[in-house]
Amino acid sequence: MRTWFALGMVILSFFPRSSSAQSQSCSEMETYDPSMSMCMPRAMDAMPMSMLMLSGNGFLVGSAETGNRARNTFYSPNMFMVDIGTSLGNSNYLNLDYMGTLERWTVPDAGYPELLQIGEENNQGVSYIDAQHPHSSPIMGLTLSDTINLGGGKNNLKIFAAPRGEATDGPVAFMHRPTGMVNPVAPLGHHVGQDVGHISSSILGESLKLYSTHLEFSTYHGTEPKPQNVDLPLGSLNSYSFRLIEEIDPNFLAMVSYAYVSNPEPDSTGPPFVNRYSASIYNTFPLSNRWAFNNSLIGGIIAGYDQAATLTSFTEEFLFKGDHPRVWGRVETLQRTPNELQLLTGTDGNAGQWVTALTVGYSHKIAMWESAELDLGASFTADLLPQDYQSAYGGNPFSALAFLQLEGMKMLSLK
Fold first, then answer.
1. Span 76-88, mean pLDDT?
2. What SS3 string covers 228-248?
3. CA atoms of 308 and 349, how far apart (whole Å)
4. pLDDT at residue 242 in the model
5. Mean pLDDT along residues 47-68
6. 293 pairs with which residues across the strands?
7. Nearest to 205 by CA among 134, 257, 283, 253
8. Taken in order 108, 109, 110, 111, is the CA torsion positive or negative?
């Protein structure tokens, strides 16, 4: 626990409180959901409401890599959400959230190329190495929640249940945070104490908001879904996680989390349990009437994973967003073991060594409709490896992407 607390304090020390920022405050009829990075409806006295929200974000990507492990292909990471909800009396807002993806059919069986990425196996028992697995399709999340109005300061208690959904574990998932939504590639730290908990099974949880503080807890089945299976299995509640979130001001959010996860891997060779720790902060700064700057800084620790005592990851993401152009990037440094990457070295195969990936990207809006936009973008990533790893990869490799991105959101009142 001391390691977790120290990690949080170190990360929070990097950025001062934002004194002037572009307001992300929700309306009086909404409350901010930090885990989704968006405003959600809430029940109010004598103001019945029913809402439908549709949103989506999808990419068509062409990739090119260098080095001995290079793989070049086309793929399409994507997600879409349907939220439908209604107020019940003056105090309850009942919501059904469906989060879907078609990645099972739009990502290659070997996963999409991403040097140094690991995690999960496909249905042939082959580990995803230097590749990102597809997310559970077509159901990535299915959550029923009741947000109970507790009075002043938009205080509320959200209780939720999901056969598959987001546990209260880790930072804001990369596909929800503004700095991650522009990048078609998942963070390398996804499984290293960061946001792998965004797809968990058989969840029961709560989020208590008291003014600017959120106290969250969930219990769930720890075994991660198999990425290529089209299913929705339920399991025993054998894992749990806590998360503390503080809205320091409308444009500065901080969170820390701890999770105990039982039997996380779907095969018998995995560890009996792991401990995951995370700390993260999120800032928005206005630069002008047309430009804003978003920043996310994330740290994660996982203990007992892949036969390593502990593995650590750090991710820094930034986004300069204008009316049409977007300049963005990701800086990652984390520990990978030789065994995770199936490398033969003269060192301990289960001892993590530090690897670094530096990404810079550019996107430009080329078309816009009422609730959607089409962007054209490209990115470049340089990987920096320890000497033991360079022979297998052919030095320090790099990769490049070109992509189209279609994204949008529409909210409709049903009465």
1. 96
2. CCCCCCCCCCCEEEEEEEEEE
3. 9
4. 97
5. 95
6. 285, 320
7. 257
8. positive
- Reported confidence tier of residue 269, pLDDT bands at 50, 70, 90: low
Spatial separation of the C-alpha atoms in residues 283 and 42, rounded to whole Å:
25
Under the banding of pLDDT at 50, 70 and 90, the label for residue 8 is very low
- In this predicted structure, what is the pLDDT of residue 79? 97
Which helix (H) or strand (E) segment holds residue 47: the answer is none
Closest CA to 264 of 224, 221, 204: 224
Confidence check: pLDDT of 384 > 70: yes
268/262 Cα distance (integer angstroms): 12
Q: Which amino acid is residue 243, in one-letter code?
A: R
* 63, 400 contact by CB (below 8 A): yes
Question: Environment class of residue 69 by beta-carbon count within 10 Å: exposed (0-12), middle (13-18) or buried (19+)?
Answer: middle
Q: Give the Cα separation of 92 and 143 in Å (integer).
A: 16
Contact predicate 292/284, CB 8 Å: yes
- pLDDT at 10 exceeding the cut of 70: no
Question: What pTM was estimated for this model as a whole?
Answer: 0.90
Count of C-beta atoms within a 10 Å radius of residue 196: 26
Whether residue 38 is predicted with pLDDT greater than 90 in this model: the reply is no
Q: Are 115 and 397 contacting, i.e. CB atoms less than 8 angstroms apart?
A: yes
Please give the structure tokens belonging to residue 89.
């009396």
Q: Where are the beta strands (DSSP E) in 250-371?
A: 252-262, 273-286, 292-303, 310-321, 325-336, 353-368
**Computed over its alpha carbons, how large is the radius of gyration of the chain?**
21
pLDDT of 6 above 80? no
CA atoms within 13 A on the CB side of 42: 26
Q: What is the distance between the alpha carbons of residues 203 and 218, in angstroms, rounded to a whole number?
A: 7
Chain centre distance of CA 202 = 19
Looking at the DSSP bridge assignments, the partners of residue 60 are 404
Percent of the chain with pLDDT over 90: 78
Per DSSP, the three-state class of 108 is coil
